[in-house]
Amino acid sequence: MTVKPSIPKGTRDFTPVEMMRRNYIFQTIRTVFEKHAYLPIETPAMENLSTLMGKYGEEGDRLLFKVLNSGDFTHGVDMNEDSPTRLATKICEKGLRYDLTVPFARFVVQHQNEITLPFKRYQMQPVWRADRPQKGRYREFYQCDADVIGTTSLLNEAELMQITSEIFQKFGIDVVIKINNRKILSGIADVLCASDKITDICTAIDKLDKIGKENVCQELMERGLSCEAIDKLQPFFDFSGSNTEKLAKLETIFAESEIGLKGVEEIRKMLEYAEMLAIPTEIELDITLARGLNYYTGAIFEVKARNVSIGSISGGGRYDNLTGIFGLKNVSGVGISYGAERIYDVLNELGLFPKSLECPVKAIFINFGEKEEQYALAALQQLRAEDITAEIYPDKAKIGKQMTFANNKGIPFVIMAGEDEMKENAFTLKNMETGEQQKLNLAKLIEELQ
Amino acid sequence: MTVKPSIPKGTRDFTPVEMMRRNYIFQTIRTVFEKHAYLPIETPAMENLSTLMGKYGEEGDRLLFKVLNSGDFTHGVDMNEDSPTRLATKICEKGLRYDLTVPFARFVVQHQNEITLPFKRYQMQPVWRADRPQKGRYREFYQCDADVIGTTSLLNEAELMQITSEIFQKFGIDVVIKINNRKILSGIADVLCASDKITDICTAIDKLDKIGKENVCQELMERGLSCEAIDKLQPFFDFSGSNTEKLAKLETIFAESEIGLKGVEEIRKMLEYAEMLAIPTEIELDITLARGLNYYTGAIFEVKARNVSIGSISGGGRYDNLTGIFGLKNVSGVGISYGAERIYDVLNELGLFPKSLECPVKAIFINFGEKEEQYALAALQQLRAEDITAEIYPDKAKIGKQMTFANNKGIPFVIMAGEDEMKENAFTLKNMETGEQQKLNLAKLIEELQ
Model pTM? Predict the structure, then answer.
């Protein structure tokens, strides 16, 4: 029986052109990470479910891909268990990595005696989520994370902004780095005398862009915030000015909120460091930024590309107690994550992929038959010795077929060497774009292709 | 509750040092693949189980990691099904990639309208097998495969040998490339008048190295081979001489076996091409080589490292009808696979990893406090602008602690700039290996670190 080939929904194959582009993205990010002394680690695709469960909320647990135990997975299990969720944890001990942060926390705790803190690591690996697939959202996608753990210095925050700036500069993508601080959000809740409602407030504020002021107030009222508190929230809705102006305003508003003032101080210090590092990218304090609230305890980052209607292409923040869940207390970390697929889409939309990525093969020798093949192979060896990526058509097919092959692959140069050329110890080089042809000796041929 | 962190058995975390070494392996292989015009592709970690099942034998099916269906996986399934194997296929639609060859075949068939044959692709991704973990055998490991499909030219076989030669030359590993051909094995079965017993004969011959001649004969007798046939097998046991001599001998023995003679002709042509390409690595015809018998239809490769007692570090061959299982007939391919973990072990055992991989960070600035930090940051920016990988200790910790940090990480240079240095616009550079110190201006500092 013939199986009609397909792949699971939400997953993708990558063709050579896509791979060349993706590798360009990974390589660019890797280079910047490494220049800033971040070191690579990798963790297994499968983690114990006990490591993953309960770390991403109820929704996250549902979205984990679970791996069936090997062998007789039914052994000693009541297969008539009513709840599929409970049954799943009995027949599956392992799950696929959902992000890179929890595995990193697990790594740090497990290897605490092998690593020296502060530990700056980067990690670029796929993650898997059983989300409903839709445009731009996949069930398998890559994350590129840089985190530093074991230091509370805000220099780290600044360095991550510098890395971000450098990465997007290399890509030629014009971005703005939006920053906030969880402590500022806590300060706002303080001012509203609604510290217990901070999650509701942040969730609502976060939607300001999308649903507008009226709806945010409506939502907060439904969530039990008093009219008085909502009134006090008004000034935060139209919070304009330079970062310095915003910080001055906040300082006044937070006169009575210790945590709010701490937030102002942290942002100020981060910006001071950013200035010392001469980060050229615009950094904008955005007090509505509330991503990853349950996670972050200090700085919050989000990167937006200008000129494209794609959401954030990067985000991160500081978490004071990430390794606590694995038993290692009081280790603070700060990190940022770059989404490869979002960056791909932006580069694609803006036409920013370097043209050199289109076809890595510089030239192909046409195969005219046994004698000519031998002549071509000797030359091909010389080209490769000079690090020129070249190939020879492996069969003596019709010339038209071989030319079509070169054309389809987008190979810029075709080299022909038949009887005539062999007599003259020469090669005919055809530029596939211009159609121009020239007869050259080997030295000149190499020169042309270098 | 605190979860004691661990990872599933047979899987591994990779620390920075291991990652640097692994990346060196991947990068070296990738460079050689690309120079020979092999193009990268990637396929998803999860494939439909229907793609994977039945492709690796019964044992293989058992070793596939199966991924539980999302949501209510019990819906419409008789959970009291007696056979766990059958039940597994009802509650799991997906499985983890077991190798790169079957996904590649699936890729070629699925994307046949997008790719131009002959198609040279490489793929370097992890695969997963629920094997019993043991020394050197993991449940998650990387394969690095190069295959060309859609051409029967033996030039491809020669090119794969050339690639192999170049890769191991770059690693500094002395190897021998062993070759055989499935048609030679068929010829041997012909000569023995036991074509129906070819699998038994090959399985037994393959063990010659391990169990010796006597035991091989014993095994073949048990498998129903006649005494006469076993007698005829004797000459193949002590098959010595140069490749040319071996081929001449085989030609005589195969006088009556058409397929045997075809095998001889193919090997001869491969060696002719190898000579044209001036492959410097020893290539040895080994007629006992019978790996992947159910797969390969032509050439068979195996690479062994000299001076280490590790099995084959690479292997491959030609398969005439790989895509047939997915409905695309008559597409011949030939490929080779390099095992990253085996290569790692060999490089490690022979001490061949470049020393430069040990610590990518060239220098670290000691952090003496606010003013000095600012002075150091300005210099750090200059170093990084010159592509020197450097960092600054992010906190003003005790000097001893900072020096220990540099030492533990193996950073070769420490830069100190306190009040004195600041006055002189200088930096003290300490070589951590020799202990030597010198005071330098910024330009000299950059020069020393470049």
Answer: 0.94
